[in-house]
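A quick word before the example. In earlier lectures we treated sequence and structure as two separate objects. From today on, think of them as two lines of the same record. Here is DUF2637 domain-containing protein written that way.
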Amino acid sequence: MCRLAAWLLDTGPVLVLALIAGAGSFTHIRDTATEHGQHGWMAWAVAVCIDLTCLMAARERQRDKKTGRIRRGPISWPVLVLAGGVVLSLAANLQQADPTVWGWITAATPAAAFLVAVSILERRAAASRLEPSPDVSQTSPSWTAASPPVPERPQAVPYERAVR
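And the structure line, produced from the sequence above:
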């Protein structure tokens, strides 16, 4: 029960942020699609496609990091897909905004919050792959994924005992 409570306290706010951001983004995309000729279920489908594409791209980035399939350079297919989805979401958010600076800022908030939630979840996924080394006598933690294991030094034998 303690682990569940700790997990909820740690991950709950990030998940709630992602859900709220997704709902705001979904609504803006659906409304924009409706205003531009996609009515009924099709407007919902457009919104689902964009939001789920963002989620799939974010998960694929995590999977690439986990499996070591990280491409050299900043641009990979999942990064490109995620950026495209966020740009479409942001465009729909801004389309629905009042044409004022504060209207644009508040309308852009769901897309920005989604990116924050994704980046936090990615950082946590990367950190969970690092396991602390079993040597607890060290004052600072040693992470096995970051540094190779250090062999123990043999204890020095006093000269008098070694001669006898």
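Notice the following. Residues 18-124 form one domain. We will return to this example when we discuss secondary structure assignment.
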